[in-house]
Amino acid sequence: MFSPADLPSTIPVFPLPRALLLPRGRLPLHIFEPRYLAMIEDCMKTSHRLMGMIQPREVPEGAEARLHSIGCAGRLSQFSETEDGRYMITLSGVSRFRVSRQVEGFCPYVKCDVSWDGFERDLGAAEKDDGLDRDYFMKLLTRYFDAEELKTDWDALGEAEDELLINALSMLCPFDLEDKQALLEAPTLSTRRETLVTLIEFALRGGQQGEERMQ
């Protein structure tokens, strides 16, 4: 468990499209680029072992790369090395952050000064979603997984607590980058669930606006 005082003011960040980490979630990653191998090694040397996952912004081809302003930091909780020098890691989500500025220097990877203000609830207990209609949600999810030809453990999903269910689906479903960012920035679990339902319904309509909600 982290307290606000434990959170560093500067962290390394890994810009990776559609790779979403949420507080109390777990994200496995396969690291092979030399600059990110160096980032993991440096992260392992710190007491907090925190690194940030952040989405790059969609920019026109040839334009300068930019990052979204909000990401989520995770603690490097599992680590293994393959025979050919790649790293297999797992990040355990701790808290979202807001980028204050990118740190200039000779570091091969991106480091940012960050603010944790406004995300205090991320350090607390798991959230509940009193507005979750599980029957409708699971039926909708079944249709979406069938349409996308996705596989899952339906028994485990059905038994999952509200936060684990909603956040795991937000992290795993194959939404576009900006949709993933909207899920990340949702201020509450209920808002994230509403966003998730909207995205699933939209996908099931084939991306067509203006149709009635499916029953």
From TrEMBL:
- Coiled-coil region(s) at which residues? none
Organism's domain of life?
Bacteria
Under InterPro entries, the record lists: Lon_prtase_N, Lon_prtase_N_sf, PUA-like_sf
The Lon N-terminal domain covers: 11-204
> Which Gene3D superfamilies would you find in this protein's record?
LON domain-like
Name of protein: Lon N-terminal domain-containing protein
